[in-house]
Write a structure and sequence with these properties.
Length: 823
């Protein structure tokens, strides 16, 4: 029979003779058998294998080729990975709608950047750079010999010192900064150094970089700096998209009710000016805005953050919605439950419940049922509230206390709420991520830095451990009728301390508290300590957050080098909550055992002993403590490449120019691919397919929809029929090329001899960012001019090879999309 052609869109199938073709049914890696066109059993996996007979395969002389690492599979894997990392379920926006929301984001950013500039002017180490942004450049005079520094253009070196050096022309001596690099010593004038140098801080205890940079070869440093820039850009886009989608989630403003005025009147204290402003901010968020609130209340311990949350809860509950209060420990959750129950005791319609791991199965089931049916209005608990079994009837508000105490998975779950419900985060020392979002305008913040009038500062003492000092401190507190916290980093040492204190104070009631105790025992211990029956409580950092015991005004913290700065600050805040002078004693075993980071942490804590210093402390904490909490563990390597200070300067620069890195996709149908290539499929493969016409139509529809749909189509095709022949691969690549071009805003691809050109709507800034993320070989061949991406190849390629080159080029450019705003 003569060969026939079947044109469908860009596809043309070439039929050969329609004789019976043997095909393969594969049970596992090695075995196979013949099967008819209509098998009587379910097919697990079938494979078309061009040019191989079933007999040869069965004998093992030839195997099905390994196609898992072919270019299409590699691209599919990358697309799937990106799709998983980014929420594929986010609603789409058209460009007009996106324009409106991007303007809102920019207005919010401007407010945040104004705060940053003010903070930069006040900070000791930071100053404003020439462009009016925030600079993390270091003052050379604050460096010590041996400190590691980063020169923006050269890389990482070791500071040696500053000294005067005579000029060659015999003029006045000039002060130079001397920096040691891997292959020599560099000197630069102090004025220049103050514009180009950054302190090199790492995201962990070790401050030493992997290697010093070379003066003779700055290309390695340039690559590291580019990686840092790309990491920053991806982070900014993720934040931008989260904020955009939160703005898009509308909800009607909550009504102002008489109950709210009554609730305010019942507050027994006179609010501080900062507290009043926080009340106003939250009320406006809830009753005037039509988008979910995401506000940080940053107030020092005992400064009245909880009252702000209580008023927000009342506003939401009065409108018939549920409120969730999330605490990091059961001790703090129980305290919140008691405070909320007391404050809402006059409101019979507001039902309050506590859910924790200490409850019996029956109690838990009862509460879960009540939450699901809307019988509980205010639900208090620990991370168990984030579990899949907890189904809310009509959740309106999430209050998170001390977010930095939650694990990565819990933080991700908290983040997932932020696009749909109002979120209020309370923290005395916010995690750096929270603080940076607050400062840069992606999130609103209210700062409560004014202490209540009766509060006095805590006297902080830092010294080597000695039993005499411990006994003296405890005796002083007990003699004035007070109580003492004695905190250790681990459960292991509690019994040893208990033994020592029982010998020293035989007539004093002493108890132990930690998270591994049975619930009843722990609750009873904390209750007796709150009532004043227990005078000394030996405990772990389970008491870090929230406990409000007016009569406990001395805290002893042993082995301070094992605590984080934020933890120490919170622990110290357990005392000094009344009008009595409070004391915090921080003991370390031996200074020679402390790391530089631990010493720096403790020095910062001593400096910040004034009230209301938690916010400033958190800023300093960013440059000191572990970086995994900030932007996720995957970022730590990128930050280590350039150091924290330069990384953050890049972050602020990127935030202020976020709209410059915006890419506009175009409809798939508008892409014109002027590479004339129409390969014909083997007749064996056409015979093998169940419905070639329908298959082609599905492929086109998938490509029109989005790249992920095309990936799914191709994976399903291969799963059902095995690896396609080369001609089919070329046809699929045409679909991929058009799809990727549409995503990148490329409307035409053509060649003229050795020159390949792509007409695009992208800006030069976008192209510059994208080209910094591709391979060196591709970067060197690409050029952007007059709205076109051009590449001059070494020789004129045949059409199929040209298509392969375009496919690989677009695949690399497409991989940069996570770093771009796509509206």
């Amino acid at each position: 029979m003569a060969a026939a052609k079947l044109p469908v869109s860009d596809f043309r199938f070439k039929f050969g003779s329609r004789c019976h073709i043997s095909t393969l049914f594969i049970n596992d890696k090695y075995s196979c058998r013949r099967w008819s066109r209509k098998p009587q059993f379910p097919i697990c996996c079938s494979a078309y294998t061009e040019g191989l007979s079933p007999t040869k395969l069965a004998q093992g002389k030839d195997r099905i080729p390994d196609w898992e690492n072919d270019p299409i599979s590699v691209l599919n894997e990358r697309v799937r990975r990106d799709h998983g990392a980014r929420d594929g379920a986010k609603p789409a926006m058209d460009s007009e709608e996106a324009e409106k929301y991007i303007m809102l984001v920019k207005e919010q950013q401007q407010r945040g950047l104004q705060k940053l500039k003010a903070a930069g002017r006040e900070a000791k180490g930071g100053d404003r750079d020439g462009g009016g942004g925030i600079s993390y450049k270091v003052d050379p005079y604050t460096l010590k010999s041996g400190d590691y520094v980063v020169h923006k253009k050269v890389g990482i070196g070791r500071f040696v010192g500053i000294k005067f050096d005579v000029q060659k022309d015999g003029g006045e001596p000039i002060e130079y900064v001397f920096i040691e690099y891997a292959d020599g010593m560099a000197k630069l004038p102090v004025k220049q150094a103050s514009r180009m140098l950054y302190r090199y801080n790492l995201p962990n205890d070790t401050k030493k970089p992997r290697a010093l940079s070379k003066l003779s070869d700055t290309s390695a440093w340039e690559r590291r700096r580019t990686k840092g820039k790309v990491a920053v850009q991806k982070m900014v886009v993720d934040l931008m998209e989260l904020y955009l989608h939160r703005l898009k989630q509308g909800r009607p403003p909550y009504p102002k009710t008489p109950a709210m005025e009554e609730f305010v009147a019942l507050f027994p204290y006179e609010p501080t000016p900062d507290q009043k402003q926080a009340f106003i901010d939250v009320e406006k968020d809830l009753t005037e805005r039509e988008t979910p609130m995401d506000r940080l209340i940053c107030g020092d311990v005992g400064f009245g953050k909880t009252e702000v949350a209580l008023r927000a809860i009342l506003c939401v509950v009065s409108a018939g919605k549920q409120a969730m209060v999330l605490a990091p420990t059961i001790v703090l959750a129980k305290q919140h439950f008691d405070v909320i129950s007391e404050r809402f005791s006059g409101y019979s319609n507001a039902k309050v419940g506590l859910l924790s791991r200490f409850q019996s199965r029956a109690e838990k089931e009862k509460y879960l049922h009540m939450i699901k049916n809307g019988e509980l209005d205010i639900i208090v608990g620990t991370h168990s509230l984030l579990g899949n079994r907890v189904v809310y009837n009509n959740l309106g508000l999430l209050v998170v206390d001390e977010e930095q105490r939650f694990g990565v998975k819990q933080k991700e779950k908290i983040a997932s709420f932020k696009t749909s419900v109002d979120v209020l985060t309370l923290s005395a020392t916010p995690i750096p991520r929270t603080l940076y979002l607050a400062l840069t305008g992606f999130r609103d913040a209210s700062l409560i830095s004014t202490p209540p009038p009766e509060r006095v500062p805590i006297k902080t003492h830092l010294s080597a451990f000695s039993k005499e000092k411990v006994i003296s401190a405890i005796k002083y507190e007990l003699d004035r009728g007070g109580q003492v916290f004695y905190v250790l980093p681990r459960i292991k040492g509690l019994d040893e301390v208990m033994e020592f204190l029982e010998l020293s104070f035989p007539d004093v009631e002493i108890a132990v508290a930690h998270g591994k105790q049975y619930s009843k025992q722990l609750e009873e211990t904390m209750d007796r300590f709150a009532k004043g029956e227990i005078k000394i409580l030996i405990c772990t950092n389970i008491v870090e957050s929230g406990l409000d015991i007016q009569n406990a005004n001395t805290i002893i913290i042993q082995d301070v080098q094992q605590f984080g700065l934020a933890q120490l600050y919170q622990l110290r805040g357990r005392v000094g909550r009344a009008d009595k002078e409070a004391y915090a004693y921080l003991f370390y075993p031996d200074k020679s055992l402390l790391s530089d980071q631990a010493l720096e942490r403790l020095a910062a804590l001593e400096e910040c002993c004034d009230l209301g210093q938690g916010f400033q402390l958190a800023e300093r904490d960013m440059g000191i403590r572990g970086f995994g909490n900030i932007f996720g563990e995957e970022q730590t390597g990128d930050i280590g490449n350039v150091g924290i200070d330069l990384f953050f300067e890049m972050l602020f620069e990127s935030l202020s120019k976020v709209d410059e890195h915006r890419i506009r996709s175009i409809p798939y149908q508008e892409v014109q691919l002027d590479i004339n290539i129409n390969p014909h499929l083997p007749s064996e493969y056409i015979n093998y397919l169940d419905n070639p016409m329908e298959l082609v139509s599905e492929a086109e529809k998938a490509a029109e929809k989005d790249i992920f749909s095309l990936v799914q189509f191709v994976e399903n095709l291969r799963r059902q029929y095995g690896k396609e022949p080369y001609s089919m691969e070329i046809l699929l690549k045409k679909l991929y090329v058009k799809r990727m071009a549409a995503d990148l805003g490329i409307n035409r691809i053509y060649n003229s001899g050795k020159m390949v050109a792509m007409e695009t709507n992208m800006s030069k800034n976008v192209f510059r960012l994208m080209s910094s993320m591709v391979s060196d070989s591709l970067r060197s061949s690409l050029l952007f001019e007059h709205g076109q991406i051009k590449a001059e190849l070494l020789l004129e390629l045949p059409r199929q090879q040209l298509l392969n080159w375009v496919f690989q080029c677009l695949a690399e450019l497409h991989a940069s999309l996570p770093a771009l705003v796509k509206y």
